[in-house]
């Protein structure tokens, strides 16, 4: 055959063996596959999960991360036990002077005292000697009209007397509540001026009276006083009774 038809037939005859060879090569089984493609069956079911593998070794320590934000404040913890006292600190500097306080009330002080002298001469015997010269009698506890001291504050008192003796002997006694407590006797020496004295501590109750008087009925009233010589009598409270005052 000649012409185009013959050319095509010749071409087909040349190409056909090559295509058959290629097809044959493509159908050869892959040795890596379990079955050749030409023998492959239906797909199988998935297998069971295998056992977990062992933990791997720790990796290298990474770089320090950035500081995170501050978390919320936690609840207060329980109070701890008291610790030991620390060593004393150094003294501080003196503070400024404070303002002057108000004047307080003074404690009450009980007072009772007298000091008197003689003006009449000679005194009569066996009656209280009236010392009418007043040296001190601020509380008025001595009565110059009677010659007696009247106790207004119960307590312990001190009494003393100093008498000038002239012209005759002197015998005097200090009385408390109509009872003689002490006696003093001085014998007069002619052409001389002498002194007789005495003192005593007494506890007095309110209303008790104390005085001096010439004792006895003889010539024992030589107590003397003038503008130069004095005969004196005095007494004062040492301390009051704590139970009553």
From TrEMBL:
This is ADIPO protein. Residues 54-67 have a biased composition (Basic and acidic residues). It comes from Smithornis capensis. Gene3D superfamilies: 2.60.120.40. Residues 107-244 form the C1q domain. It comes from the Eukaryota. It is found in: Secreted. InterPro entries: C1q_dom, Collagen, Collagen/C1q_domain, Tumour_necrosis_fac-like_dom. One of its GO terms (cellular component) is collagen trimer. The gene is Adipoq. Its main location: secreted. Residues 25-104 are annotated as: Disordered. SUPFAM superfamilies: TNF-like. Residues 81-90 have a biased composition (Low complexity). SMART domains: C1Q. Residues 1-24 form the signal peptide. Keywords: Collagen, Hydroxylation, Secreted, Signal. PROSITE patterns: C1Q.
């Amino acid at each position: 055959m000649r012409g185009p038809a013959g050319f095509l037939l010749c071409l087909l005859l040349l190409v056909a063996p090559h295509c058959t060879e290629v097809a044959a090569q493509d159908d050869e089984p892959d040795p890596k596959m379990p079955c050749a493609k030409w023998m492959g069956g239906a797909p199988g079911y998935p297998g069971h999960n295998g056992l977990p593998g062992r933990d791997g070794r720790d990796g290298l320590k990474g770089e320090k991360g950035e500081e995170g934000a501050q978390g919320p404040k936690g609840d207060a913890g329980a109070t701890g036990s008291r610790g030991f006292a620390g060593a004393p600190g150094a003294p501080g500097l003196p503070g400024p002077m404070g303002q002057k306080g108000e004047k307080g009330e003074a404690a009450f002080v009980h007072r009772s005292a007298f000091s008197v002298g003689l003006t009449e001469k000679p005194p009569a015997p066996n009656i209280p000697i009236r010392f009418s010269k007043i040296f001190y009698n601020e509380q008025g506890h001595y009565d110059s009209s009677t010659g007696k001291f009247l106790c207004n504050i119960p307590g312990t008192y001190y009494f003393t007397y100093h008498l000038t003796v002239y012209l005759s002997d002197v015998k005097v006694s200090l009385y408390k509540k109509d009872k003689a407590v002490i006696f003093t006797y001085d014998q007069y020496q002619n052409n001389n001026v002498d002194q007789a004295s005495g003192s005593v501590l007494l506890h007095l109750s309110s209303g008790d009276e104390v005085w001096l008087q010439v004792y006895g009925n003889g010539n024992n009233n030589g107590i003397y006083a003038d503008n130069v010589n004095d005969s004196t009598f005095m007494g004062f409270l040492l301390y009051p009774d704590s139970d009553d005052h």
